[in-house]
Design goal:
Layout lengths: L1 H5 L4 H9 L6 E3 L6 E2 L2 E2 L6 E3 H19 L1 H10 L1 H16 L4 H24 L3 H28 L24 E4 L2 E4 L8 H16 L7 H17 L3 H16 L6 H19 L1 E2 L4 H18 L10 H5 L17 H9 L1 H15 L6 H14 L4 H4 L1 H21 L1
Antiparallel strand pairs: 1-4, 2-3, 5-6, 5-7
Helix pairs in contact: 2-7, 3-6, 6-18, 7-9, 8-9, 8-10, 8-16, 8-18, 10-11, 10-16, 12-14, 14-15
Length: 414
């Protein structure tokens, strides 16, 4: 039954799903818990995105697959009774003590959605037509994003029109709170493309760059070169210092491995790395960025100390943070810029330990593979100083998509 169902999901559909990952087009639903001090907060608003609709066949297919493997699931639970029981118990505690139970259930549904998509990709990512559809969808999406970013950079405002339907928001360099960069004495609008923030854009395409760089399955050198160029350009014009530093480090580490193959190539890459470092050091942005991040860090530590066992509940971190006084004149409410602190604050220490331990066990052996190690390093680096990997839908989905493909190699060899 599962094999018959899976054949109905065509490569064109997977292409569309991979392409529309760049879109943040969706409908936000603002309830009482979505407001802080009378101001609407997108992070607290349940949202239905266009990509959610596209993911429905993958979700249904995964449910069919899990049902077909029900005996295997029961056997796993019997062999791991303590882990299954302790995880369930801690999740219930996290829900009961959550500062907003609707947000907890919304977050739980989101996680289940991503797990289903991951399962589907793990089971089908080795199929050549599926892999090709994913690569072409991501590549075309990158070309669209680069085109839009260059227009925004040159005109200093959004384009709208067709781009609105990919999720581009309406803004200009004069919009309050908009991200700007100062380079060589000139002011630039940092391109958002169809993302919520340029840092999110930079991190998204840094991860894609690393993924494509380490892929041996892409045999067409022209396609690979275009993809690497597009991703590189998007990382650089995002003016995200963390993404650019990550880009430099990844290239140095990767090309150290190829030193013996092409010494000229290696020294050229190192020279380029130094140029990018100088470029990064000359970029300036929000003058209060460091103070704001430090303030978020201190508040997250206080929240963890206050609720070490239960956590704030999934999705409720900002509600807890709002109880602490603002140090800046304008309203500025964002999650702490660290995925690790944010996870611990929301889940509590015991559940976080279970989560991190489970992830480490899953990747312990695979991390020896270059195609696994480099994306992990990229996520750790950027996730240590920003939150978009677990708070923004586009970044979450690209994680699911790429690691679903990487995990599928394990299935093929097992």
């Amino acid at each position: 039954m599962y094999s018959r169902f899976i054949t109905r999901i065509s490569p064109l559909y997977i292409f569309m799903f991979s392409f529309f990952i760049i879109s943040q087009l969706g409908k936000h639903f603002f309830f009482n818990f979505s407001y802080l001090s009378g101001i609407r907060i997108d992070y607290l608003a349940p949202t239905i995105y266009f990509i959610d609709i596209l993911s429905l066949p993958l979700i249904i297919s995964s449910f069919v697959y899990v049902y077909s493997k029900s005996n295997t699931v029961r056997n796993w639970i019997q062999k791991n009774t303590f882990l299954a029981f302790s995880t369930s118990a801690l999740l219930i505690v996290n829900c009961v003590f959550s500062l907003s139970k609707p947000l907890w259930f919304y977050g739980f549904i989101r996680v289940m959605q991503y797990v289903c998509v991951l399962i589907w990709l793990k089971n089908n990512g080795t199929k050549k037509y599926i892999y090709s559809a994913v690569i072409w969808g991501l590549l075309l999406g990158g070309i669209f994003e680069l085109s839009l970013s260059l227009i925004q950079l040159s005109t200093r405002h959004s384009v709208q029109g067709f781009w609105y339907y990919l999720g581009e928001r309406n803004f200009s360099i004069f919009t309050p709170g908009i991200a700007k960069a100062y380079f060589m004495g000139k002011e630039f609008l940092r391109p958002y493309a169809t993302f919520s923030h340029p840092n999110s854009l930079g991190g998204f395409y840094l991860l894609l760059y690393v993924f494509i760089l380490t892929q041996k399955r892409i045999t067409n050198s022209l396609v690979k070169s275009i993809f690497l160029f597009t991703s590189s350009a998007l990382v650089l014009i995002s003016f995200s210092r963390t993404a650019i530093v990550g880009y430099v480090l990844v290239n140095i580490l990767y090309f150290i491995r190829t030193f013996s193959l092409c010494k000229t190539c290696f020294f050229a890459k190192v020279s380029l790395a130094f140029v990018l470092i100088i470029f990064t050091l000359n970029i300036s942005g929000d003058l209060n960025s460091l103070q704001k991040r430090t303030d978020f860090f201190e508040k997250s530590i206080s929240i963890i100390k206050k609720m070490p066992f239960t956590g704030t509940g999934v999705g409720s971190y900002l509600i807890a943070q709002h109880n602490y006084p603002q140090k800046f004149s304008t309203f500025f409410e964002q999650p702490v810029h660290s995925i690790f602190l944010l996870i611990i604050a929301q889940l509590g220490i015991p559940l976080s330990i279970l989560l991190f331990t489970s992830i480490f066990r899953k990747i312990d052996v695979k991390i020896r593979r270059v195609d696994f190690l480099f994306p992990i390093l990229c996520i750790i680096l950027t996730g240590s100083v920003d939150h978009y990997w677990i708070t923004l839908q586009q970044n979450q989905l690209v994680l699911v998509l790429l690691f679903g493909i990487l995990f599928s190699y394990e299935k093929k060899t097992s």
